[in-house]
Write a structure and sequence with these properties.
Layout lengths: L10 E3 L7 H7 L8 E4 L1 H11 L5 E4 L12 E5 L12 H20 L5 E4 L4 H4 L7 H8 L7 E5 L4 E4 L9 H4 L2 H19 L5 E4 L13 H13 L5 E5 L7 H4 L4 E4 L2 H12 L4 E5 L4 E5 L16 H13 L2
Parallel strand pairs: 1-2, 1-5, 2-4, 3-4, 5-12, 7-10, 8-9, 8-10
Antiparallel strand pairs: 6-7, 6-11, 11-12
C-alpha cells in the first residue's frame, strides 16, 4: 500500500486528558485524513471504551508509518500515568500536555509534519503564568512572542484580539503602538499567505464610542496613528466603535475585525457563529490551529459533544497543506 507524502501529514495533539477531547477526536474526520495523533494510546483507548465509541486505533512510532486510506486513528504514543481514565492527576496531565505540544512543535520544525491542531487544554493547570495560552507558549518557543496573532477564523468573518488572556484592568496599559503595528503586519502577511487574498481589516477602538476621539484617548494616541501609517500598504480602516461594528450591514465590509481585547470581539463572534470557527496562530513557521472551545470537563463522560470545530480545523489544515 502506498505511503502518504511525508509533507502532507499533520498532527493532532490530544490535549487535556480530563476533557471531551478523546470523544470529539473519535467522532471527527481525523481517521480519514492521515492525521498523526500525538498523545496517549492507552488513554484514548480507555476513554473510548467507557464512552462506548468504536474506532480502530493504531500505535505508530513515526509519522512515516501512516498509510493512505487506513481509516484508523494513528497514535504516536506519548506515555501517561493514570488510574482512572477521566481523572488524571493535574501534575501528570500538565507535564504530559506540554510534552505533546513540544513533540508536535519539533515534528513541524523537522518537516515530518506540516502543522498541528491541538485539542483543548486547561490553561489553569498547564501554565504558571495565567496570561499564557498555547498561542503564546508556541510563539515563545519560536521566538516570535508579541508578533504572533490569534485569529478566530470563519469563512464569512474572522476576528483578532490584540491582547489575549489578560485582566481587564491591564488592557489599556498593554495597548502600545509597536505591538499594534507588529500584529497588524503579521495578520495581513499570513492571511495573504494562507488564504491568497488581501484582507479588508477593520480596527476597533478601546473605549465606548471611541471616547469621542478625545485628546488623551488610546484611540488618538495609539490606534489612529498606526492605521494612518499602514493605510498605504494594507486594506485597513478604523477605529470603529465596538457597539455597532457587528451589525449585519457592517459585517460585509470586512474580512477581519481587530479588537483591543479578547471578549470585545470573541463574545459577538460566538453569538454569530457559535463553534463554527477555527483558532489559528499566525506568525509561526508552521500551521497551528485549535478548536474554538474549551475542555468541557462537565461533559467529559456524557458522549454528547459536537466535533464541529475540530472538523473545521481538519478541513482547513487539509486544504492549506495541499
Amino acid at each position: 500500500m502506498p505511503m502518504l507524502k511525508l509533507m502532507n501529514n499533520f498532527g493532532i495533539v490530544l490535549g487535556e486528558p480530563n476533557s471531551i477531547n478523546c470523544e470529539i477526536l473519535a467522532k471527527s474526520k481525523a481517521y480519514k485524513k492521515g492525521a498523526v495523533i500525538i498523545g496517549s494510546y492507552k488513554l484514548l483507548k480507555s476513554q473510548l471504551k467507557i464512552l462506548k465509541i468504536k474506532r480502530k486505533l493504531k500505535k505508530i512510532k513515526t509519522p512515516e508509518e501512516i498509510r493512505k486510506n487506513d481509516k484508523v486513528l494513528n497514535v504516536l504514543d506519548i506515555p501517561l500515568k493514570f488510574k482512572k481514565a477521566f481523572k488524571v492527576n493535574h501534575k501528570e496531565s500538565s507535564n504530559y500536555v506540554k510534552k505533546c505540544l513540544v513533540i508536535g512543535h519539533n515534528l513541524c520544525l523537522q518537516k515530518k509534519i506540516r502543522g498541528i491542531i491541538n485539542c483543548s487544554v486547561n490553561k489553569k493547570n498547564l501554565f504558571k503564568n495565567r496570561n499564557l495560552g498555547v498561542t503564546e507558549f508556541l510563539a515563545k518557543k519560536n521566538k516570535v512572542l508579541n508578533s504572533e496573532v490569534m485569529i478566530i477564523y470563519n469563512k464569512n468573518l474572522s476576528v483578532v484580539p490584540l491582547t489575549t488572556h489578560i485582566k481587564v484592568k491591564d488592557i489599556s496599559k498593554s495597548i502600545k503602538k509597536n505591538l499594534l503595528l507588529k500584529k497588524l503586519k503579521t495578520l495581513n502577511k499570513y492571511y495573504v499567505k494562507y488564504f491568497k487574498k488581501t484582507p479588508r481589516i477593520g480596527v476597533l477602538g478601546l473605549n465606548p464610542h471611541n471616547l469621542e476621539l478625545k485628546k488623551n484617548s488610546e484611540e488618538l494616541k495609539v490606534i489612529v496613528p498606526i492605521i494612518k501609517r499602514l493605510k498605504k500598504k494594507i486594506k485597513i480602516s478604523g477605529p470603529y466603535p465596538a457597539d455597532t461594528i457587528f451589525l449585519k450591514h457592517n459585517l460585509s465590509r470586512f474580512d477581519i475585525i481587530v479588537g483591543m481585547y479578547h471578549d470585545q470581539v470573541l463574545s459577538p463572534f460566538k453569538a454569530l457563529y457559535g463553534f463554527d470557527a477555527v483558532n489559528i496562530t499566525f506568525g509561526l513557521p508552521y500551521i497551528r490551529m485549535s478548536p474554538d472551545h474549551g475542555v468541557a470537563e462537565d461533559k467529559k463522560k456524557l458522549n454528547i459533544s459536537n466535533p464541529l470545530s475540530l472538523n473545521r480545523c481538519i478541513e482547513l489544515i487539509t486544504k492549506l497543506i495541499k
